[in-house]
Each structure stands twice: as C-alpha cells, then as structure tokens.
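Subject: for your reference before the review

Hello V.,

The reviewers asked for a structural picture of the protein, and I figured it would be easier to keep everything in one thread rather than splitting it across files. Below is the amino acid sequence we used in the manuscript, unchanged from the supplementary table.
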Amino acid sequence: MAYDQFDVYVSYAPEDAERVRAFVHELEWMGLKVWFSNQPATSQESLQMLRGSMNSTTCQIVVWTNNSAGSGRIQAEARAGSGLGRLIAVRLDSGIIPPPGTEARTYADLGDWTGGNDHRGMKKVLAGIWMLIGKGQQPEPADVQVDTNERTNVEFGTKAEVAEEAITPEQKDEKAWKTAETYNSRTYFEHYLQYFPNGRHAEEARERIAKKKRTSAIVITCAVVYMVLQLVAALVLSSNRF
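And here is what came back from the structure prediction:
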C-alpha cells in the first residue's frame, strides 16, 4: 500500500506487533485502510513519511505500551502526529503517561479490550477517527460527546474517574517518580524534573541523569579507544607484510 493510499498510520513497538495486530484487524473490519506492516526502518524515514502524507484524509494512532513508551522512534513519531493535529493515543498497558509534546486529539484505554467495537475505549478510537477523517464507523452522539470532554486527559481515564481518584500534589510527585524509576531512562527522569523541578525526588533525578551522562561518555570513549586500537593493530599488521 503506497503512503497516499492509507487512512490510518499505526505507530507501535515491533515487540508489540502481535498485540497490535488484533486492534488493526478491528479497524480494517470497519473499512479503514491501515498502514501497519512494512513500516519504515528508521525514525527519519517514518517522520518523512508522516510529514509528507498526513492531511485531512489521514490520521495517526500511536499505541502506548511498556515497550513503545521507552522508544525514541515512537516518541518522535507521536510528536510529529501531535504537531500535525492528527494524533490518536491508545494505551494497552496501565500506568503509561505519554511524554510531553505528544498531545492527542483522542485518548483511549484498551487495556482490557478483548475484541469487538462495543468496548468503551474502541468506541472512542472509532469516534476519534471519524471526527478526523470522516471514515470508519460513524459514532453515536453520546460517544462523540464523551470523546470531546475527555480528550485532554493525558492519563486516559474518564473525567469521573479522575474526580474520584483526585490525588494530592505529593501523591502526583510520587506517582511520576515511580514511573521514571520503572523505565529508568534519562528521558523519563528529565520528564520528571520538567513537571517537578522542586519535587521530593528532584535531586536524585538530577544525580541519575548525571550518572547516565557519565556512563554514556565512558561507553563512547571506550568505543573510540577500541576503534583506534583496532586501526593501529591493522596498520602494524599491514606494515609487517612488506
């Protein structure tokens, strides 16, 4: 399928291919042409494709999981779709918080989805697609209203759920820190500091970022030294042949 022939582009981590496949089949059952297989191999290629093909007849769905949340490629693709205003966010694993700069038009939690289009999250996805490109399954007025009211909630919960589970700033701080610890990546520690620069764990976050920078520098230095030694060894062997 050529870039200009699809309705929906799905961004997902390769490790989640089988999990995402059932979701893609549901969209195809609704008559949507989905770009799923044979995706560009690099971030540069995928971003080039997205920026060149996203228009009023196409949209992008990013599938957030434990695997994709830590993927720089998926984050880059999500930011591209967000910047174009064509992004729909779907979550398969609980506790995932989309990184900054990936604001979606629709958020849907499919953590307990087992198939079909009667699931509340799937209804939100289909409503979001319809509102963006006018294809697929036309939603009931109630579904459209639900989506409009909830699409700004980056944690995928309903407004009622958020009200019931209202937490204190300290609890939000702790929740964000646990997320950062779970992924244990520089990106998530930086996200934590962005939202909680004076948080309870801010100093530790800075220390971990500094440690990861030092580790990266050591790895790069070792790689450079190894390459230099390999080059020197090759030159010595070459000189001994003459």
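For the response letter, the relevant points are probably these. Confidence is low (pLDDT under 50) at residues 145-155, 158-165. The chain has ten helices and five strands.

Happy to draft the paragraph if you're swamped.

O.
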